[in-house]
Amino acid sequence: MKKTVLCLILCLLTGIGQASAQAKAEIKFDKTTHNFGTFSEEHPVVSCTFTFTNVGKAPLVIHQAIASCGCTVPEYTQEPVLPGKTGTIKVTYNGAGRYPGHFRKSITLRTNAETEMLRLYIEGEMKAKE
Q1: CB-based contacts of 118, cutoff 8 Å, min separation 6
Q2: Rounded to whole angstroms, how far apart are CA atoms 88 and 50?
Q3: pLDDT in the model for residue 34
Q4: Contact 36, 124 (CB under 8 A)
Q5: pLDDT > 80? residue 1
Q6: SS3 assignment for the chain
Q7: Buried residues in 98-116 as b, exposed as e (16+ CB within 10 A)
């Protein structure tokens, strides 16, 4: 009898664990690439904001946002984003001291979402001072 009760309890706990593990966050962006177009070396700092929605069933947490270059700085929503709610990632590119021309940078995100790692991209063309 004790073995039967113990077995039932273990099955119940396993089932509860699997059910809670299925509720995952899922991140959906309005866009994953931003093109700044052409801007002058006289005003080398440009920014954009990526907006995302948690379309999953659990709170979404961004653990890291890492830029591919020191000239690019991401700032992101630090608190968990509840299901159905939105968050932002602001990306600033500083072209001061860089050679004019075309650039393409990436920002790698690490999250607790179904897709744990994804990349955002910024690009543009900085024209030399005249």
Answers
A1: 27, 32, 108, 109, 111
A2: 6
A3: 98
A4: yes
A5: no
A6: CHHHHHHHHHHHHHHHHHHHHHCCECEEECCCEEEEEEEECCCCEEEEEEEEEECCCCCECEEEEEECCCCEEEEECCCCECCCCEEEEEEEEECCCCCCEEEEEEEEEEECECCCEEEEEEEEEEECCC
A7: eeeeebebebebebbbeee
For residue range 19-73, what is the model confidence (pLDDT) as tens digits? 555 789 999 999 999 999 999 999 999 999 999 999 999 999 999 999 999 999 9
Find how far residue 13's CA is from the centre of its chain: 33
Residue 106 has pLDDT above 90, yes or no: yes
By CB atoms closer than 10 A (0-12, 13-18, 19+), residue 117 is exposed
Q: Which of 17-21, 74-78, 87-91, 102-106 has the lowest mean pLDDT?
A: 17-21
Q: Identify whether the C-beta of residue 122 lies closer than 8 Å to the C-beta of residue 48.
A: yes
Q: Taking every pair of C-alpha atoms in the chain, what is the biggest distance, in angstroms?
A: 89
